[in-house]
Amino acid sequence: MKIALMGGWNTDSGASVHTELIGRNFVKLGHDLKVFTFFDYAFHGSQITGEDEDYVIRCFTVSSYPEQKLNAVPFLVSDYEIFVTEDLGMLPKDLLAKIFLHIKRKAKTVTVIHDGKLTDDPSFYQFDWDAIVSFDHRYRNFLIKGYPSEKVHIISYPALPWNPGDKKEAREKLGIPMDKKVIYSFGPGALRALKIIDPLKELCEKYPVMFLITAGEDDIINAYKEKLKDW
Predict the structure, then answer these.
(1) Is residue 160 in some structural domain?
(2) Looking at the 3D structure of the chain, how many domains does it have?
(3) Structural domain harbouring 78
(4) What whole-number distance in Å separates Cα of residue 195 and Cα of residue 67?
(5) How far is 84 from 87, CA to CA, in rounded Å?
(6) Is residue 159 situated within a structural domain?
(7) Are residues 200 and 97 located together in one domain of the fold?
(8) pTM for this structure?
(9) Residue 144 and residue 76 share a domain
(10) Residues 84 and 49 in one domain
């Protein structure tokens, strides 16, 4: 089967994780894969995390970029039977809509919803998808209020087998004390997690706690330093 995926790839966003999990397994199963993903100067996430494979084309900007761009040519000339978008809110929706009819002429179209509720953005609803994927019944319950119920399907998020490692070895390698509880946050989500810091203060007075933050932006690290400086 010839499959095209449009979404994050080789970045640290949650949507990219899902796209890579299913995409790389499509390749292992022998399917012909084409990935349309973000330009490296305007992507969703905080870091590019890997080298792009031969089947990856960077050809559009994230929706929040000041000057949205989408190179239509790869979508039009590539050969695929199934076209899948991941996390539509991050994609340049109105630009995609201009070529969507051409995509539908040659492929079945699927969108994988990553949002936790129906959006009030009209740009989401201009696409006539053949299928809409939700991760569980909670997603489906709100999606059928805005989309035809027969088009909304549940396909669970891929889960790997439980494979615990050596906690002591891992902590020693990362320089994390063994006697502290670790509260971990990463990427842009770390900035949103700042609001939980104050409620955690009482917990931190009873238990030794370490905040572990990984982020590529200095403003996130500085915000945590400012928040925690009097602790």
Answers:
(1) no
(2) 2
(3) 2-154
(4) 31
(5) 10
(6) no
(7) no
(8) 0.80
(9) yes
(10) yes
Residues 36 and 143 grouped into a single domain: yes
Per-residue pLDDT of the chain (231 residues), as tens digits, is 999 999 999 998 889 999 999 999 999 999 999 999 999 999 998 889 999 999 999 999 999 999 999 999 999 999 999 999 999 999 999 999 999 999 999 999 999 999 999 999 999 999 999 999 999 999 999 999 999 999 999 999 988 788 889 999 999 998 999 998 888 887 777 888 888 888 888 888 888 888 888 877 788 888 888 887 777
Q: Say if residue 117 is in the same domain as residue 178.
A: no
Which residue(s) pair with 85 in the sheet? 6, 111
Kindly write down the DSSP assignment for every residue of 136-174, as one continuous string. Answer: SHHHHHHHTTTS-GGGEEE-PPP-PPP----HHHHHHHH
CATH number for the domain that contains residue 47:
3.40.50.2000
Same structural domain, 189 and 107: no
Looking at the fold, whether 144 and 215 belong to one and the same domain comes out as no
d(CA 110, CA 101): 14
**Three-state DSSP class for residue 189:** helix
Q: How many CB atoms lie within 10 A of CB 100?
A: 18
Contact (Cβ atoms closer than 8 angstroms) between residue 103 and residue 82: no
Token pair, residue 35, equals 């990935």
CA-wise closest residue to 110 among 88, 139, 91, 90: 88
| DSSP-assigned beta bridge partners for residue 214 | 186
User: What is d(CA 89, CA 80) in angstroms, rounded to the nearest whole number?
Assistant: 23
- Element holding 198 (H helix, E strand): helix 197-206
Which tokens hold the place of 6? 């449009």
Q: Count helices and strands (H / E) in the chain.
A: 8, 9
Q: What is the DSSP letter of 203?
A: H
